[in-house]
Amino acid sequence: MSEELLINISPMESRVAVLDNGVLGEIYIERHNKLGLVGNIYLGTVVRVLPGMQAAFVDIGQSRTAFLHVNDMQREPRPVAEKKNKAQDSINNERTIIDAATDELAITPPVVSAQSTEVVPVAKTLIQHRLHESQRILVQVTKDQLGSKGARLTTNISLPSRYLVYLPSSEHIGISQRIDGDEERTRLKTELSSLMQTVNLKGGLIARTAAERVPVDKLEEDIYYLLQLWRTICARRQEMKPNQSSELIYQELSLPLRSIRDLVHADTEKVIIDNAQIYEQVRYFAKEFVPFVYDRIVHYNAEQSLFDVHRVEDDLRDALKRRVDLKSGGYLIIDQTEAMTTIDVNTGSFVGARSLEDTVYKTNLEATHAIARQLRLRNLGGIIILDFIDMLEQQHKDDILESLQAQLTQDYAKTKITQVSELGLVEMTRKRTRESLGQQLCEPCSTCQGRGFVKTAETVCFEIFREIMRCARTYNSPKKFTVVAHAAVIDLLLTSESDTVADLEYLLGRVITFDVENLYTQEQYDIVLD
Ligand SMILES: [Zn+2]
Predict the structure, then answer these.
(1) How open is the CA angle 298-301-307, to the nearest 5 degrees?
(2) 120 C-alpha to center of ligand 1: Å?
């Protein structure tokens, strides 16, 4: 399968589209106003130590000083100044740098934890014995600053890659609990520990859920990336000048760089970027960390928008609709609620009885492809119920299930068909990763309050009649009523409902007049009394 990555940059957002054989498969969107500091690593300076709270305020160059609690510093990095010479001498020596970075941890043994029987002097666990004012310290942000509260920090650095998380201050190799099967867990543990030895990377690793069944050469690429990254961080922390109080050492990657880290692989033929500055950034990043893709990165600066040229804009618009048309004439209806997603398969037009089973079979078969694509594109997660069109032949039923299964194996997210109910409903789950496309881009419709339907103009007319009668009873002799409403409602009042209006005027002895309000939705109206 050939893959292309399209990266579209605008002042307000970055969007990354993954094309499989020219067709939009996945879309990632990052709105720039929602970016935070979480994941960033700073070399900060301790401003105050608060023994009473067992915490410290650390200057990381933000408007508020950040907060570090003793529980978030299980292990104590040695102050940078003491290490300076050793580390500087060895910037180009991978082995020594990694050693330097991890043997800092040996200065203070870890605090007693559940797995450790090591006894640590109590004094070492108190913050006032571990930190002092004006001390420099390497910290990572775990929570953004909010209002008057500063950001929350940890000294337990973690660096994510596509399949792994590197923990410089740990010694364990952990496997995501979502990875099933003892055999696979053991394989990952064995392979990761031998890879770490090969490249001489010290510290701990976590295999993320995405690592399941990933071949060893891919894991090796990841370890290599983490090694390069950690080397860069170790080198950069030495660069801070004595008069500086804080420095951003590592920034959680922006979407364009993350997509190079997480989405690019051997089958990626091209990465096309429509912004010169980001193009340069991505090239620089790729050269350093993902060298095999470097020559496949292209800058696009033609007049027509990149997403229009590749039909991404159209596909994106369609990916928000309930209905997905199939080539065979059938269609899917996709409904997402908080609890689950249901996908209903329908045949298009009436088909003769003789070819019915055949048409249904073909439609269902096509639907399995469309469903798998839509799950990825819309990033639907959680429980998913598929309602295929009823089929008579058992062989057909088996084929459909088999085809669905085959399509789902292409999905990067973990999927599982849990059961086929007596009514023929296929129940499946898909691992929730981020918000679905709909949740990210849409909100409940304010016209229908999320019901998906609006009252008909006739229903609204009848509401208006009841409201006029209520007003006539409640208020003392208004001279006239004016109905202000949507054009469709007023049209109806002046045509098919005009008899009722006349009856009402006679009954109440009042005149009723009408005004169209273009800003009103079909359900909105006002009754004005004169
Ligand atoms: Zn609506």
Answers:
(1) 85
(2) 62
Q: Which of 248, 266, 284 delimits the end of a domain?
A: 248
Ligand 1 centroid to 444 CA: how many Å? 7
Entry pTM: 0.67
Is residue 229, in this structure, part of any structural domain at all?
yes
At residue 243's C-alpha, the angle toward residues 239 and 246, to 5°, is 65
Asked whether the beta carbons of 366 and 328 are under 8 A apart, the reply is yes
**Residues 455-481: tens digit of each pLDDT:** 999 999 999 999 998 888 877 767 889
* Claim to verify: residue 102 and residue 236 sit in the same structural domain: yes
With tokens 């979407």, the residue in question is 255
Q: How far is the CA of 313 from the centre of ligand 1 (A)?
A: 22
What value does the mean pLDDT of the chain take?
85
Q: Are residues 124 and 172 in the same domain?
A: yes
Same domain flag for 256 and 370: no
pLDDT in the model for residue 121: 52
Cα 107 to middle of ligand 1, angstroms: 62
Residue 467: in which H helix or E strand, if any?
helix 457-474
Q: What would the two tokens of residue 60 be?
A: 């990381």
Local confidence band at 374 (pLDDT 50, 70, 90 cut-offs): very high
How many Cα atoms are found within 13 Å in the side-chain-facing hemisphere of 484? 8
Gap from CA of 447 to ligand 1 centroid (Å): 5
Question: From ligand 1's centre to the CA of 443, what distance in Å?
Answer: 10
Q: How remote is the CA of residue 459 from the centroid of ligand 1, in Å?
A: 16
Q: Nearest Cα to 436, choosing from 5, 18, 22, 26? A: 26
Contact 427, 419 (CB under 8 A): yes
Highest mean pLDDT among 37-46, 92-101, 232-241: 37-46
Q: What is the DSSP string of 62-119?
A: SSS-EEEEGGG-SS-PPPHHHHHHHHHHTTT-HHHHHHHHHHGGGSSPPPP-TT----
- Determine the pLDDT at residue 168: 92
317: in domain: no
Count of domains observed in the chain: 4
Both 108 and 223 in a single domain? Answer: yes
Residue 268 belongs to domain with CATH number:
3.30.420.60
303 exposed, middle or buried (CB, 10 Å; 0-12, 13-18, 19+)? exposed
Domain hosting residue 128, numbered range: 41-248
Q: How many CA atoms lie within 13 A of 271 on its CB side?
A: 30
